[in-house]
C-alpha cells in the first residue's frame, strides 16, 4: 500500500511517556513499520497531501496535526477508532471516506476547506460541533450518523447533497445563509432539529427533512420548487408552512405532514399528484394563482372544509378523494375549469348517497349553466351555485 505523494513524510511522534522523536519516511509501509515500534499519540506531517489509506485502521492514533496538508486522500484515516482531534489549517479538499468510523473524533478544524467529500465524517459519533467557514460543497453522507452533532455552521455553503446530515439525531442548530439546494435526505431523521431557516434556498428535494420530529419552524423565502417526495413527511410538530415564491409543489411535496394546518403558497401555480397527500390536519390552504390541481393532490385531507381556487383551469382525478369534511369549493376562472374525472370528489359529501344540500361548488354566475352541463361537472349539478353577490 503506497501513499500518493512525491515527497517523503517528515513525522514528529510523541510517545505516551512524553518523549518526542523525528522521522523521515517515504511510504505507508514505512509508516506501518514505525508505528509498530512506537506508541504514538501525535503525528505531525509537513507533506502537502495525505495519500489514500495512509493511516487506515491505525487505532492508537489520538491526535493529528498537519500544518502543510492541502488535500486528504481516500480513507486516509478511516477506522482510526481512537482519533480524538484533527487539525488541518491549510487543507482545501477532503476526499472520500477520510475520517469514516472515527468514533472518538471530537474536534475537527479545517478553516480553509472548500469541499467535503462523500462519507468524509460518516459515523463520527462523538463529533459535537462543526464550523467550516469557507466550505461551499458538502457531498453525500458527509456527516451522516454523527449522533452527537449538535450544531453545524457553514456560512459559504451553496449545496448540501444526499443525506449529508442524515441520522444526526442530536442536531439542534444549522446555519446555511447562502445555501441554494437541499438534496435528498439531507437532514433525514434529525430528530432534535427545531427550525430550518434557509434564506436563499431555491430547491428542496425528496426526504430533505423527513422524520424531523421536533421541527416546528421552516423558512424558505426564495424557494421556487418543492421538487421531491416527502421532504417534510413525519414532522409531527410542523403546523404551518409559508413559501412566498414557490411556484410548484411536486409529487408528494407536502405529503404526510400530520400536524400541518395552514399552508400559504401565494405564487404557486401547480400542485402535482399527491402534493398534500394525507395531511390529515390541514384546514386552510391559500392558492390564489394555482392553475393545476393534480391527481390525488389533496387525498385524505380529512380536516379540510373549504378551498378556494380562483385561477384553477384543471382538477385531476381523485384530487379530493376522502376529504370527508369538505363542504365548499370556490372556482373563479372566466371559463369552465376542466374536471378530469367524476371521481375527483370520491368519498366526500359531494358524491355520497346522502349528499348534504349545504355542500356547494361556487362558480361565477355567468358560468353556472355551463358548469351544470359540462363533462363530469354535471354529476354535481345540484351543488353548483353562483358566488354570493356575483
Description:
The chain has 390 residues and is mostly beta strands. The protein has a domain at 1-179: Leucine-rich repeat, LRR (right-handed beta-alpha superhelix), CATH 3.80.10. It contains two helices and 32 strands. The strands form six sheets. A 14-stranded parallel sheet has the order 4-6-8-10-12-14-16-18-20-22-24-26-28-30, with no helix packed on it. Strands 2-1-3-5-7-9 form a six-stranded mixed sheet, covered by helices on one side. Strands 27-29-31-32 form a four-stranded parallel sheet. The protein is elongated, with a radius of gyration of 28 Å. Mean pLDDT is 88; it is low at 1-42.
What's the topology here?
Layout: E1 9-15, E2 20-25, H1 28-37, E3 40-45, E4 49-50, E5 63-65, E6 71-72, E7 85-87, E8 93-94, E9 107-109, E10 115-116, E11 129-131, E12 137-138, E13 151-153, E14 159-160, E15 173-175, E16 181-182, E17 195-197, E18 203-204, E19 217-219, E20 225-226, E21 240-242, E22 248-249, E23 262-264, E24 270-271, E25 284-286, E26 292-293, E27 306-309, E28 314-315, E29 328-331, E30 338-339, E31 360-363, H2 368-373, E32 384-386
Parallel strand pairs: 3-5, 4-6, 5-7, 6-8, 7-9, 8-10, 10-12, 11-13, 12-14, 13-15, 14-16, 16-18, 17-19, 18-20, 20-22, 21-23, 22-24, 23-25, 24-26, 26-28, 27-29, 28-30, 29-31, 31-32
Antiparallel strand pairs: 1-2, 1-3
Amino acid at each position: 500500500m503506497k501513499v500518493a505523494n512525491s515527497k517523503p513524510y517528515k513525522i514528529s511522534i510523541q510517545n505516551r511517556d512524553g518523549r518526542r522523536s523525528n522521522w523521515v519516511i517515504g511510504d505507508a509501509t514505512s509508516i506501518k513499520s514505525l508505528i509498530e515500534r512506537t506508541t504514538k499519540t501525535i503525528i505531525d506531517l509537513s507533506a502537502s497531501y495525505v495519500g489514500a489509506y495512509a493511516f487506515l485502521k491505525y487505532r492508537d492514533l489520538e491526535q493529528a496535526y498537519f500544518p502543510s496538508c492541502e488535500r486528504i486522500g481516500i480513507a486516509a484515516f478511516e477506522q482510526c477508532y481512537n482519533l480524538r482531534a484533527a487539525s488541518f489549517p491549510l487543507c482545501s479538499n477532503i476526499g472520500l471516506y477520510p475520517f469514516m468510523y472515527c468514533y472518538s473524533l471530537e474536534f475537527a478544524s479545517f478553516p480553509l476547506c472548500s469541499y467535503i467529500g462523500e462519507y468524509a465524517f460518516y459515523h463520527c459519533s462523538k463529533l459535537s460541533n462543526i464550523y467550516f467557514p469557507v466550505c461551499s460543497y458538502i457531498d453525500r453522507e458527509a456527516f451522516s450518523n454523527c449522533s452527537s452533532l449538535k450544531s453545524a455552521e457553514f456560512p459559504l455553503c451553496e449545496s448540501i447533497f444526499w443525506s449529508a446530515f442524515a441520522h444526526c439525531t442530536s442536531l439542534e442548530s444549522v446555519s446555511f445563509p447562502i445555501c441554494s439546494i437541499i438534496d435528498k435526505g439531507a437532514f433525514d431523521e434529525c430528530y432534535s432539529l427545531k427550525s430550518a431557516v434557509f434564506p436563499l434556498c431555491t430547491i428542496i428535494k425528496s426526504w430533505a427533512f423527513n422524520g424531523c420530529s421536533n421541527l416546528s419552524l421552516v423558512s424558505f423565502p426564495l424557494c421556487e420548487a418543492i421538487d421531491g417526495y416527502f421532504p417534510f413527511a413525519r414532522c409531527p410538530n410542523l403546523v404551518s408552512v409559508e413559501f412566498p415564491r414557490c411556484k410548484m409543489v411536486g409529487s408528494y411535496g407536502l405529503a404526510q405532514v400530520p400536524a400541518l394546518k395552514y399552508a400559504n403558497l401565494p405564487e404557486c401555480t401547480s400542485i402535482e399528484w399527491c402534493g398534500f397527500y394525507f395531511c390529515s390536519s390541514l384546514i386552510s390552504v391559500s392558492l390564489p394563482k394555482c392553475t393545476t390541481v393534480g391527481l390525488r393532490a389533496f387525498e385524505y385531507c380529512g380536516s379540510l372544509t373549504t378551498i378556494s381556487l380562483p385561477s384553477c383551469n384543471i382538477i385531476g382525478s381523485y384530487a379530493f378523494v376522502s376529504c370527508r369534511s369538505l363542504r365548499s369549493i370556490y372556482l373563479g376562472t372566466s371559463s369552465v375549469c376542466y374536471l378530469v374525472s367524476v371521481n375527483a370528489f370520491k368519498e366526500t359529501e359531494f358524491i355520497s348517497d346522502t349528499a348534504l344540500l349545504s355542500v356547494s361548488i361556487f362558480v361565477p354566475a355567468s358560468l353556472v349553466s355551463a358548469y351544470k352541463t359540462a363533462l363530469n361537472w354535471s354529476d354535481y349539478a345540484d351543488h353548483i351555485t353562483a358566488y354570493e353577490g356575483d
